[in-house]
Each structure stands twice: as C-alpha cells, then as structure tokens.
Amino acid sequence: MPVVRAAIVGMVAALMVALAPALKAAAQDKSMTEAVPQIGHSGQVLSVAFSPDGRQVLSGGADNTLKLWHAASGALLRTFQPHSGWVQSVAFSPDGRQVLSGGR
Q1: Which domain holds residue 71?
Q2: 3-class DSSP state for residue 76?
Q3: Against a cut of 0.70, is the pTM above it?
Q4: CA–CA distance, 66 with 74 (Å, rounded to integer)
Q5: 2 torsion bin: left (phi>0), alpha (psi -120 to 50), beta (else)
Q6: Long-range pairs, 37-44, Cβ under 8 A, ≥24
Q7: Alpha-carbon distance 50 to 36, whole Å?
Q8: Distance from the CA of 25 to the CA of which of 32, 34, 49, 81 falls in 20 to 30 A?
C-alpha cells in the first residue's frame, strides 16, 4: 500500500503543478472565482485523467466508481459504477471518446 500512496501523492503533485498557472490566474481575477458544489467520491480519489482536449476530467476512487467531470465548471457529468472494488487507474482513449479503468 505504501507504493500506491506514493503514486497517488505523485499524481496529485503533478496535477497541482500543471494547474497552478490557471488557478493563480483565476484567484487574481475575481470575476472568474466561483464556488461550485461538488457531488464527489465518497472515498479516496485514487486516479485522475484529463481528456485529450482538456474539456473533461475522469476520476476513480475507493468508492468503486468512476466520475466524469466538466473541467471548466467542475460539474459532474456522469457516474459509472462498473467495479466491485477500488478504481485504481483511469484513462481516456487517444480520441477522447472512450474511457478505461482498472482496479480491484
């Protein structure tokens, strides 16, 4: 489990670094700052992936679900429940039309 936790910490850190410029710009422009209520995962988020066009985000978690989000607004678009255990890995196909997940 320590290896999985280290990988998650690494993914979150990379995501924060990638989003830092946009978050900083949004924080400085008060017209862009908006609170969006979330209906997120009920457990830990274990994997996150951006669609190839950057418009959507896919997340998978310890609640056995995948969630598809609108990247700009943060709105939840769809919840998938195909797993009998944790969703540990998520990805988009190169064209962004399909998603793939792996887990327990």
Answers
A1: 2-103
A2: strand
A3: no
A4: 15
A5: alpha
A6: 38/74, 38/76, 39/76, 40/67, 40/76, 41/65, 41/67, 43/86, 44/8
A7: 19
A8: 49
